[in-house]
């Protein structure tokens, strides 16, 4: 085999390999696009109709595909729900972890609160799925599993509060109870807003009220503990 013939063979093989890789990459993109299409339709229906009243056929009809297509990507409705649940928590954790570079623990706690509020307001449907809908917790109970995603985010809050105690911002206290208290306040604050309970204030200053309330809460934390 002369060198020219060899080069031609190598060129053809490389070209064929690139074509195969290109096809595989395209198929992977198409699969991801389909998963995204299914999950977005499911999230919308879960929130509008409720988890129990939403069927795989409903989701398939919404995206104009057959139910069989859904089952190619998700084993059942529970798996689809938990996929949405996990994605939502992953997205929130990515936002909360951004504050990890703040050296002062109290400032880190404050910024974590800002990020939590921001995430809830910018992602109301995801927040509903994560913290308000009952379906994910009922499914966990049926599986006899614990709420791992909740524990991870709660654990992050506990670590920051523990650092605040070590730095002298708070007195020695039950870290878990304090973290629960902070979370309960934050959850209540954003839920009042997301569920339109602030509409009783007809001055279009709901977001200002949230920020003012949070500032007061932080001040109370710093002075009373």
What is the structure about, briefly put?
With 225 residues, the protein is mainly alpha-helical. It is built from ten helices and no strands.
Order of helices and strands: HHHHHHHHHH
Count up the helices. Answer: 10
Cα(first) to Cα(last) distance is 84 Å
- Could you tell me the radius of gyration in angstroms? 24 Å
CATH topology of the largest domain: Tetracycline Repressor, domain 2
Structure description:
By secondary structure, the protein is mostly helical. The protein has 2 domains: 1-74, Orthogonal Bundle (Arc Repressor Mutant, subunit A); 77-225, Tetracycline Repressor, domain 2. 77% of the residues lie in helices and 0% in strands. It is built from 10 helices and no strands. It has helices at residues 3-49, 56-63, 67-71, 77-96, 105-122, 124-132, 135-143, 148-166, 175-194, 206-224. The N and C termini lie far apart (84 Å). The mean pLDDT is 87. Residues 55-74 bind DNA. It comes from Runella slithyformis (strain ATCC 29530 / DSM 19594 / LMG 11500 / NCIMB 11436 / LSU 4). Residues 13-44 form a coiled coil. Keywords: Coiled coil, DNA-binding, Transcription, Transcription regulation. This is Transcriptional regulator, TetR family.
Main features:
Arc Repressor Mutant, subunit A, mainly alpha, Homeodomain-like_sf, HTH-type_Tx_Regulator, 77% helix, 10 helices, single chain, DNA binding, transcription, transcription regulation
């Amino acid at each position: 085999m002369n060198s020219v013939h060899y080069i031609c063979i190598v060129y053809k093989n490389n070209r064929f390999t690139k074509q195969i890789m290109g096809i595989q990459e395209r198929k992977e993109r198409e699969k991801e696009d389909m998963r995204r299409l299914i999950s977005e339709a499911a999230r919308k229906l879960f929130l509008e109709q409720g988890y129990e009243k939403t069927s795989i056929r409903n989701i398939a009809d919404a995206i104009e595909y057959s139910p069989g297509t859904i089952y190619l990507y998700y084993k059942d409705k529970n798996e689809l729900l938990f996929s949405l649940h996990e994605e939502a928590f992953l997205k929130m954790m990515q936002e909360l972890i951004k504050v990890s570079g703040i050296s002062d623990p109290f400032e880190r706690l404050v910024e974590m609160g800002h990020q939590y509020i921001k995430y809830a307001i910018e992602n109301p449907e995801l927040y509903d799925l994560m913290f308000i809908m009952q379906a994910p917790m009922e499914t966990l109970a049926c599986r006899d599993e614990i709420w791992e995603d909740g524990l991870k985010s709660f654990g992050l809050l506990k670590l920051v509060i523990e650092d605040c105690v070590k730095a002298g911002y708070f007195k020695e206290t039950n870290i878990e109870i304090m973290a629960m208290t902070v979370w309960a306040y934050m959850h209540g604050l954003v839920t009042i807003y997301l569920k339109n309970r602030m509409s009783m204030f007809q001055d279009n200053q709901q977001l200002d009220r949230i920020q003012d309330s949070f500032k007061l809460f932080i001040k109370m934390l710093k002075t009373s503990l």
